[in-house]
Amino acid sequence: MNNRIIIFLASLLMPFLGKAQEVAGPEMADTFRSEGKIYVVITVISIIFMCLIGYLVYIDIKLSKLENKNRNTN
Amino acid sequence: MIKWWKILSALLILYTLVLGMLGPVPHLDILNETIRNLFYHVPIWFAMLFQMGYSVVYAIKQLSKNDLQSDIISNQAAQTGLFFALPGLLTGCMWAKFTWGTWWTFQDPKLNGVAIAVLIYLAYFILRSSIDDEQKRARIAAVYNIFAFVMMFVFIMILPRLTDSLHPGNGGNPAFGKYDLDSNMRLVFYPAVIGWVLLSLWILDVKKRLAILTHKENEQ
Fold first, then answer.
1. Scanning every residue of chain A, which has its alpha carbon at the shortest distance from the alpha carbon of B35?
2. Confidence (pTM)
3. Concatenated DSSP letters for chain A?
């Protein structure tokens, strides 16, 4: 329990640690990308997008079948 | 069964989702990493404008040839365009909050113009749904559609350029293209525009076919 409190208090100092690393020029997330894990986000976004596209393909195919059926009955 | 341009749209957008996050961008004050929104926010609006253009072309076709199919396509395209305005507005609000410091400002002609344009198109759907006679509905909707498109163009593309605006590309503010859109960003931005326009066409294709099928069912 004590460890948790210490970690919590230490985490409050995080913004000040960040300040110390400030460099010239606008702040960009340069290290964010090089340290990896951004790839996880990109994978998540890509999976969501591909699922949506897959759903659209499914609807499209289903509609094509319905159109064919409609054409044959008329 | 799935047409090639539909696959292309999915691949192009997937490419921009990855490269848009990883690719190099210019280091700018205030914008910081949010400049990457350019790859997602702007193409959405391009798709919306494209759909409205598609809609007005079919409205003119309807008036010249007087066929109901054009009226259906015109209506569906306007619906698709209005749908794309929603993510466009929401992403715009988000971007504005973290760069201009506010979700929405009523002093900005670009934002007001977009709000008015959306309302004009909402009126189009109300007008269209309030007429029962098919031929009459098609003709009146087509005439109003041309009016709506012209007004949207004036409110979004012309008026914001005449006065001061926070939005890039308006009222003396340079568009991103002028200074910030370097060749690396172009490699992502242009495919994104093409990809989202094609995706909007795909959604329109599905909606249109469904509407025509429903129309046929109702006739029987």
1. A28
2. 0.82
3. -HHHHHHHHHHHTHHHHHHHT--SSS---HHHHHTS-HHHHHHHHHHHHHHHHHHHHHHHHHHHHHHHHHHHH-
